[in-house]
Amino acid sequence: MNRDRDPRIGFVSLGCPKALVDSEQILTRLRTEGYDIAPSYEAADLVVINTCGFIDAAVAESLDAIGEALAENGKVIVTGCLGAKGSVVRDLHPSVLAVTGPHACEEVMAAVHAHLPRPHDPFLDLIPPQGVKLTPRHYAYLKISEGCNHRCTFCIIPQLRGDLVSRPVGEVLQEAEVLVRAGVKELLIVSQDTSAYGVDVRYRTGFWQGRPLKTQLTALATALGELGVWVRLHYVYPYPHVDDLIPLMAEGKLVPYLDVPLQHASPRILKAMKRPANADNALERIRRWRDICPELTLRSTFIVGFPGETEEDFKRLLEFLEMAELDRVGCFTYSPVEGAAANALPDAVPEEVKQDRQACLMELQAGISARRLQRKLGRTVTVLVDEHDAEEGVAIARSSADAPEIDGRVYVLDGAELPVGEFAAVRIVETDEHDLYAETVEKQESPRRSRQQGAARRRRSRGG
Ligand code: SF4
User: Where do the H-state alpha helices sit in 277-375?
Assistant: First the structure.
């Protein structure tokens, strides 16, 4: 390629007006990013062909066009309807650089970037490829959809953000790849309802790295699992298809961690909340998940004091917690949100009753969490180092059981030298109801710190 000029793309657009619109979008993006459009194969550094796969004649025309571009230029990216027809293109033309389906502007641009880097832009190039991130360099949130199809009566998110809109699977994976290349070691998958990913587009087939992939959570999670970093799923409802994720966790492809916002366990209250799940099923499902993946860490959040919640309902919630033995639990007292349907419900619970119930629930859960953490004593676990407490000479890290900001931490007592943003193997030497205390495994004789010191550190780190 002649480096004294901007990179040039040859473009062949075949097919119907819908394909033409796709071509226009891709050409617009190419021009916006500074690529020139070449008038001939010879003048191009790379050729994009938008194909048609409607009838046999259109298929033949598209395959001919690909063959011609390969012969004349050699570097060809295929997009459009023919790309969605399985391996038709690759079987005849195995040397094409990438194949995507229709309406796949992001995936085409990703393939172009991979084979013909974007020209330098003095303004845009000030921004790193992963964009501006507010999280530390080694972890990042990855949003896979926006909005929600449920209508929980305490929530106004669907009013604010609308119904579920899933991001194209190829676009999500492309973003994930960019983040991993930029040094991210942990991807935190978020949305309003992660398990519903793809419902709105009927699990449409997208493309990633030239291969077809469904817009569906298991397919997405499987592909993310290939990136070689921790992949952690948040806001997953216990729908039946979530069962398919658990074997991926047991195999180490996903972090064995699920954040499942259950909100209550009394069927009466769940109905009044219009929640998408049922508590008995949730319990049964949790048991099955743990049979498949005993290492699974479960986090959930609950609301106490919802309008109409009786002592009986609350007791049922406590019984559920005892049976479910969740690892991490957050509990909020119900408070009305302007515009929420629950505001119209009768039998508001007095504020002090709400507070008592919250304290009671958290006390019960503290014991459960402490027991579950205690089982880790003596085990060797992998942690990701978040930061150092220079004064104490400890590394503050997290295991796969700990999401940033919301869960506990692993204080590595002799970890002053452990690099931030890297994984390390540590042995657990002490536990409490929130955190773990550990030593690096390489050391044979690590200085044991006292329980009091550990507790003092913990109080400081929590600001009180
Ligand atoms: S609470 Fe969650 S599931 Fe329910 S409507 Fe709000 S965003 Fe949707």
Answer: 279-292, 311-324, 351-374
